Amino acid sequence: MTTTRYTISGMTQSGQKFRPSDWTERLVCTQPEQLKRYSGHLKIRRINGIKSIVFDDQLKYACAFTFERLVSFAKTNHLVFTEETIEGGTP
């Protein structure tokens, strides 16, 4: 199965580190009932020392609001946002 994996980096398109430092935790709701809905489709990661959020296209079906919120946040704040097509797997 082909999946699209998205990564939002804590780095702006102009190369500045995004602040506040806990932006990933603030953006991703950590309520247990929320996490159950998108478990496996969204992860907070540190990539090359930069806090990032990695999620797949299945998040759209598990929690469309969260998916749209993440994409909108990345665009509004001019964060580095990448898409990658992968065969199977999760973020």
TrEMBL record:
A matching Pfam family: DUF3579
Name recorded for this polypeptide: PhnO
